[in-house]
Design brief:
With 292 residues, this protein is an alpha/beta fold. Helices cover 46% and strands 15% of the residues. It has a seven-stranded mixed sheet with strand order 1-2-3-4-6-8-10.
């Protein structure tokens, strides 16, 4: 279809690549190193603008569908996968040491990414082509469908391992887990036991929708089959609206402000936010300006 777009567009080592192989399908390939650590830069200059571009293009097609009265032009689906040149990681989660030092990371960066995917206006399929740990698993849970290798060609697990290294969960993690899985036993197994699920276990417990005997190409092929089947459900334009209602309680919990605020904490958070603005668009007058 159209040429691939990389993000950031000016980078020689882009964080991700966006392709549009079919009229109704877009694929985001995460390419932040080998294990796709979900950093502030990766999210703000890679994932979020790529999601915006997919929605922008789909809405153009959806508008054409309304004008031409051709409903099929409004079909749409998005696949998110790990880098295609390996079969070890979908995402290895956060850069934890950096994340806990950034008071804005969860409320300003990570949680908005989760809510963006959770309420995306077209079906989103996670093609999990390797391990999905912690924040990487949360990214996949925000998607509508999850497809994973069956682990026969190479070991792969999904796991929330924070309980094992003493990291407190943000509200968004617990809210998303409750929104996706109503069984308290599964919630306990994921959150409090930090169970490392094999693909077969994850499929049996409903974390995954399908497992695939193969590596990245076969996983993406299976994800495309799901995308082909469900993309028609985007054509009426209400997929995202229904999800807003379906996950209303989840979204309210994810948006809760949990930071303790005083003048020093407020100043640190403001400086962090301003530095992110400079990162995205430094402008000619402020190339050398940074708050410390």
């Amino acid at each position: 279809m159209s040429p691939a777009i990389t993000y950031p567009t000016s980078s020689r080592t882009p964080f991700l690549e966006l392709t549009h192989p079919k009229p109704h399908l877009w694929i985001i390939e995460l390419k932040n190193g080998q294990d796709n650590r979900l950093t502030t830069e990766f999210i703000t200059t890679g994932i979020m603008p790529a999601l915006d571009e997919v929605e922008r293009r789909w809405r153009v097609q959806w508008g054409q569908a309304q004008q031409q009265k051709k409903k099929e032009l409004g079909n749409g689906a998005l696949i998110i996968t790990g880098r295609r040149d390996q079969d070890k990681f979908f995402s290895n989660g956060l850069d934890f040491e950096k994340a806990i030092k950034d008071l804005n990371f969860f409320p300003v960066t990570f949680d908005p990414m989760l809510t963006r995917i959770l309420t995306f206006p077209i079906p989103v399929i996670a093609a999990i082509n390797g391990h999905a740990f912690a924040g990487g698993l949360m990214l996949s849970l925000a998607c509508d469908y999850r497809v994973m290798t069956d682990g026969t060609k190479r070991n792969a697990w999904v796991c929330m391992n924070e309980v094992h290294f003493g990291a407190h969960w943000p509200h968004s993690f617990a809210a998303l887990l409750r929104g996706k899985f109503g069984d308290h036993r599964l919630q306990r197994k994921i959150a409090l036991e930090g169970h490392r699920f094999t693909p077969q276990e994850a499929l049996q417990d409903g974390i995954l929708d399908a497992i695939v005997d193969g590596k990245t190409p076969e996983i993406i092929t299976t994800a495309e089959k799901i995308a082909d089947r469900v993309s028609v459900n985007a054509a009426t334009g209400v997929w995202g609206l229904i999800k807003h209602d379906l996950y209303r309680d989840t979204l309210e919990q994810m948006r809760r402000e949990t930071r303790t605020t005083n003048a020093h904490i407020h100043d640190a958070a403001a400086r962090s936010a301003l530095n992110k603005v400079l990162l995205r668009d430094p402008g000619p007058k402020f190339n050398n300006l940074r708050l410390f």
